[in-house]
């Protein structure tokens, strides 16, 4: 699809159906911005991590949600799961090139939220 | 808080507790990346919209979720609600300066997702 530079970002998103229901964009957006999806992607932003490391870094995630969210991100092609045949088997999770591209766009948002969260929640007196 | 440039983004986010449970960052992140929160913020990225316009643009949102999400975003100081005393009263929603800052960081992510959603969902055969 060719999009002119004259077209605004919002028009472009509307054209691509990001605000319409039942479109792939909504599905991916739900995965990426799910409570745990976003935290797992950021946790993997610098290096691969093992299951137990992910559980520790992403505080509060249950075994069930960790398994489920990793499966979704793996099916989306954003996270790579590598099993090394040791005893016991070692499983490492890392970002795929696609996941790395995505996280590059997630981090500025996360940083902004981290910088402004206290002020935002503090506004609610 | 002063953060050295030497500190990685991930370290910085960990220091700010973005991956820890029960911190303001997680609360704000949940609001901002909620299914409807992100779509409403993007919908308002260019101009103020009225209630009915928001319902049409953000396809599939219920009256209840629209009201609830707008209340949360307003309480966070991200969305401004302006009532004009006409008969019937006119209510416009717009981004606050804080909301505008946030959306500037949301749009690159949304564009990337819109550009890659078909490929990502198509991967799942």
CATH class of chain A: Mainly Alpha
CATH architecture label name of chain A: Orthogonal Bundle
What would you call the structural class of chain A? mainly alpha
Task: Tell the overall outline of chain A.
Answer: globular
Could you tell me the strand content of chain A as a percent range? Answer: 5-15%
As a percent range, the share of helical residues of chain A equals 55-70%
> Largest protein interface?
A-B, 61 and 61 residues
State the assembly state of the protein chains: homodimer
Total beta-strand segments of chain A = 3
Strand order of the largest sheet of chain A: 1-3-2
Total number of distinct structural domains of chain A? 1
What count of helical segments of chain A does DSSP give?
A: 6
Summary tags:
three-stranded antiparallel sheet, WH-like_DNA-bd_sf (chains A, B), 6 helices, WH_DNA-bd_sf (chains A, B), 3 strands, mainly alpha, 57% helix, homodimer, Arc Repressor Mutant, subunit A, DNA binding (chains A, B), DNA-binding (chains A, B), 125 residues, transcription regulation (chains A, B)
Summarize the structure.
2 copies of one chain form a homodimer. The first copy, chain A, is mainly alpha-helical.
Provide structural commentary.
- 2 copies of one chain form a homodimer.
- Chain A has 125 residues and is mainly alpha-helical.
- Chain A has a single domain (33-122), classed as Winged helix-like DNA-binding domain superfamily/Winged helix DNA-binding domain (Arc Repressor Mutant, subunit A).
- Helices cover 57% and strands 11% of the residues of chain A.
- Chain A contains 6 helices and 3 strands.
- Chain A has helices at 9-15, 24-32, 35-43, 51-57, 63-75, 97-122, and strands spanning 49-50, 79-84, 90-95.
- In chain A, strands 1-3-2 form a 3-stranded antiparallel β-sheet.
- In chain A, a hairpin with a 5-residue loop joins strand 2 and strand 3 (90-95).
- The longest helix of chain A has 26 residues, at 97-122.
- The N and C termini of chain A lie far apart (47 Å).
- Residues 1-5 of chain A have low confidence and may be disordered.
- The interface between A and B is large, with 61 and 61 residues.
